[in-house]
Design goal:
Elements (H helix, E strand, L loop, with lengths): L4 H5 L2 H7 L15 E9 L2 E8 L7 E5 L13 H5 L4 E5 L13 H6 L1 H14 L6 E6 L3 H9 L5 E7 L5 H7 L18 H4 L7 E6 L8 H9 L6 E6 L11 H23 L1
Parallel strand pairs: 3-4, 3-5, 5-6, 6-7, 7-8
Antiparallel strand pairs: 1-2, 2-4
Length: 272
C-alpha cells in the first residue's frame, strides 16, 4: 500500500500519541452569561463550545485551546478575556468536553472551517457584530492557523499563544514521533509552515520566555514566517512557562487587550 500523509494524519495511531482528550458534561447554562454550542462537523460527530457574552457591538474571539484542556477550563478566567473588550467562544475538538467522535490531526484541521462558518452564522443570527479574532493556544494553533490562512473578510486579527511554526518539528521534538523514511515536505499542506505565510490579518504572538514544552524561539519562528506586509507583534511573557502564561495577568491580558482594541478601532475607522 502506498503511504499517504493524509491517511497518516487521520490515523488512530498518530492520534493516540498526539491527543489527550478529556470528557465532561455540559456546564449549567444558568451559571454564566452566554450559550452552550453544539457544532455538527460530520454525520456522526459534533464539537462542543461555549459562547461567553460581552456585548453585541464588540468583536468575538474564537479560541482553540491547548491539548488536554476543555472549554469549561476557561470559565474560571473568562472575566479576564471579556475584559479585553470581546465576546469569547471557546471550542473543543472531537472527543473533548461534551463533544462526540474521536480526534485526529486531520479532522482537527478540516473541522475548523465548519466551526468558523457555524460561529459566523451564530453571531449574525444573534445580531452580534460578525467581526472575529482567531486565537490558537499550543496545539490549537494548528486549526487557528489553517483558518487564518483562508483570510475570511470577517477576521480582523489573529493571536498565537505558546504556538509553533512547524508541525513536523512538533511531532518530532515534543511527541518523539519517528518520521524517518518519510518525505517531510509532503506534510507541508497540513502544516503551520504552509498556513502562516498565507495570513494577511494583523497578528499577535504571545510566548512565555521559560516555556519548556514549546520553547520560546518558536514564537520568533512564527514572527519570521509571517509576511512582512502583515502588521505583526511578538510579545515575550517574561518568566512564564507553558501552562502558567495566563498567571502573568498584566503582561498577558494587557497585550491581548491592547491588540484587540487597536485592531477593532482600526477596522471601525476604515469602515466609516
Amino acid at each position: 500500500m502506498t503511504f499517504s500523509v493524509k491517511n497518516y494524519l487521520n490515523s488512530v495511531g498518530l492520534a493516540e500519541i498526539v491527543f489527550y482528550p478529556r470528557w465532561a458534561t455540559q456546564p449549567d447554562p444558568d451559571s454564566f452569561l452566554g450559550n452552550i454550542l453544539e457544532i455538527p462537523v460530520s454525520s456522526d460527530a459534533q464539537i462542543g463550545g461555549i459562547f461567553f457574552k460581552n456585548a453585541p457591538d464588540v468583536p468575538t474571539l474564537l479560541f482553540f485551546h491547548g491539548n488536554g484542556e476543555i472549554a469549561q477550563d476557561y470559565m474560571f478566567q473568562i472575566e479576564n478575556f471579556l475584559g479585553c473588550g470581546v465576546n469569547v467562544v471557546i471550542v473543543d475538538y472531537r472527543g473533548y468536553g461534551f463533544g462526540t467522535g474521536s480526534p485526529t490531526v486531520l479532522n482537527m484541521i478540516e473541522d475548523s472551517p465548519t466551526i468558523y462558518t457555524f460561529i459566523k452564522n451564530f453571531l449574525i443570527d444573534q445580531e452580534f457584530l460578525p467581526k472575529i479574532f482567531l486565537m490558537g493556544r499550543s496545539l490549537g494553533c494548528i486549526p487557528a492557523a489553517k483558518l487564518a490562512s483562508l483570510n475570511h473578510p470577517e477576521v480582523i486579527g489573529v493571536i498565537f499563544e505558546s504556538a509553533f511554526a512547524d508541525t513536523v518539528k512538533l511531532f518530532q521534538n515534543l511527541f518523539r514521533i519517528n518520521l524517518s523514511g518519510m518525505k517531510l515536505t509532503d506534510f507541508n499542506p497540513w502544516s503551520n509552515i504552509s498556513f502562516i505565510p498565507k495570513i494577511q490579518s494583523p497578528t499577535l504572538i504571545l510566548h512565555g520566555t521559560q516555556d519548556l514544552i514549546i520553547p520560546f524561539p518558536n514564537g520568533k519562528e512564527i514572527y519570521d514566517l509571517l509576511s512582512d506586509s502583515v502588521r505583526k507583534k511578538f510579545i515575550p511573557i517574561e518568566g512564564a512557562q507553558h501552562n502558567d502564561i495566563h498567571a502573568s495577568e498584566d503582561q498577558y491580558f494587557g497585550a491581548l487587550q491592547s491588540f484587540t482594541q487597536q485592531e477593532f478601532h482600526r477596522t471601525t475607522l476604515f469602515s466609516k
